[in-house]
Amino acid sequence: MKTLRQKRKMVNHSHSQLSIAGQCKLLGIHRSGLYYRPRGESELNLELMRMMDEHYLDHPYKGAERMHTWLNLDKGMNVSRNRVNRLYYKVMGLRSVLPGPSTSKPSKGKGHQIYPYLLSGLKIDKPNQVWATDITYIPMNSGFLYLVAIIDLYSRFVISWSISNTMDAQWCSEILKEGVAKYGSPQILNSDQGSQFTSDIYTECVKDLGIKMSMDGKGRCIDNVFIERLWWSVKYEDIYIKEYKNGWELEDGLNAYFEKYNRFRRHQAINNEYPAERFFSFNHSRDSFFEEQLKEKNLNLINA
Prior knowledge:
The chain is built from 12 helices and 5 strands. By secondary structure, the protein is an alpha/beta fold. Helix 3 (43-58) packs across helix 5 (81-91), helix 4 crosses helix 5 (81-91) and helix 6 (169-183) runs parallel beside helix 8.
């Protein structure tokens, strides 16, 4: 099965008979992520977003109000509360880890359904038991993009990921289907209560794949702490350092980063194992790349 990135590259922008929309429909992909064209904001807004993104990674308990205070009193920005609210909530999709008001609302309105949190007290002791997914903002030189990823909680293995210039349910559904096609279905998929994950398009996709849905309590992204740590790692270890110029550079860079993250980066939280080693240890149908890596590793131990 071709990956979402491979399908996107198959689209012929100068096809004489098929429109881009028609090709996307035939390939089963959403047009929103096709161009990797960063979304634009004013120069001031892009500066504010970059500042808030870096500050939030170290201070995830700060909501829009405290972020507004920090920007004005500590950074001297002199910006309005409405501007910060829009960027924080609507554009960047951030939320404080601290519970806020109306945390027990049962629904987000027509076409959106909240599901209970299923991970409380659950012992996660094997791959494909629980996956977690989330979306984060990615700063670019001339705008910004979004990154969605799915991670296996037992192994910290990044199952699948994608970048786009919009946050929508169809995009999230496509990356979930890609992950399931490659590695099978998890028992549970955990997410926050973002509108992409509560929409009928996404929830029906999850249920059709035979997966149970679990959602963090509103204002408690600490429940999804493992993927939040992934965002910290990928931004501080790669994105902030390299400052990619466009979406294609970002895609190539993230492809290399996640390959390293999965296969060549030991994680203290899983006894200094590699995520891929831990994930595939329960799966006899290991991919050939990792099988060869294990053989080489064992051979080196024998010859030592």
